[in-house]
Design a protein that fits this description.
Number of helices: 6
Strand order of the largest sheet: 10-13-12-11
Distance between the termini: 33 Å
CATH class of the largest domain: Alpha Beta
Number of strands: 13
Strand content: 15-25%
CATH topology of the largest domain: Uridine Diphospho-n-acetylenolpyruvylglucosamine Reductase, domain 1
Radius of gyration: 19 Å
CATH architecture of the largest domain: Alpha-Beta Complex
Shape: globular
Structural class: alpha+beta
Order of helices and strands: HEHEEEEEEEEHEHEEEHH
Largest sheet: 4 strands, antiparallel
Length: about 210
């Protein structure tokens, strides 16, 4: 996981990966979406990566051969990231730990870190903060089934304990609808959703 990677780097006195301790998921996922937190993102430290292609071959790619933008990269969705070389600096373990503690504290204060979430739900539109748009559209605390727009940070959907994937999908789409109606801005999912709705299967829309 990204957190484990940040901890291993700290234990070896390597700085530059502290921000990864605040990003859920794996390094492969972080590269795929150019994940970031607290003014840093994965493209800032990536040197190269090794991928498995859909044809079963391996390919080594330097950062120069890739294109990154806010929460995205230009790699095929079928590519699987196997490993990566990252740029780090020699640092002092105590100073690295202090930075990671600061990140943990900021997450605890600003985000629903004690609840089950998938991380930030929507990408920030250019010039706007997704959470502010959601707040202004009256969606704070909005609940569908077991899923709820976090009372603490509006750009997080939390599982109250019984949420299904469909609850989360429906809630996210309702948030998108309300924000579009209120502001004219269309939110885009930051969370990667996989699969199809069971309801669609039952209605014969997909098989």
């Amino acid at each position: 996981s990204n957190l484990k990677l940040a901890k291993v780097a700290k234990e070896n006195g390597l700085s530059g990966l502290e921000f990864l301790s605040g990003i859920p998921g794996s390094l492969g996922g972080a590269i795929r979406m150019n994940a970031g937190a607290f003014d840093r993102e994965i493209s800032d430290i990536l040197i190269s990566t090794r991928i498995l292609t859909i044809g079963g071959g391996f390919e080594e790619l330097s950062k120069r051969k890739m294109s990154f933008s806010y929460r995205s990269c230009n790699m095929s969705e079928s590519s699987i990231f196997l490993s990566a070389d990252l740029r780090v600096n020699k640092g002092k373990i105590g100073e690295i730990e202090s930075i990671m503690k600061s990140i943990r504290y900021r997450r605890q204060v600003q985000q629903p870190s004690k609840q089950a979430t998938g991380g930030s739900t929507f990408i920030n539109p250019p010039g706007f903060k997704a959470w502010e748009l959601i707040e202004n559209a009256g969606c704070r605390g909005l609940t569908i089934g077991g899923a709820q727009v976090s009372e603490k940070h509006c750009n997080f959907i939390v599982n109250l304990g019984s949420a299904t994937a469909l609850d989360i999908e429906k809630l996210g789409n309702e948030v998108k609808r309300r924000v579009l109606e209120h502001t004219g801005i269309k939110l885009e999912w930051e969370i990667k959703r996989i699969g199809v709705h069971l309801e669609e299967v039952r209605r014969g829309i997909v098989t």
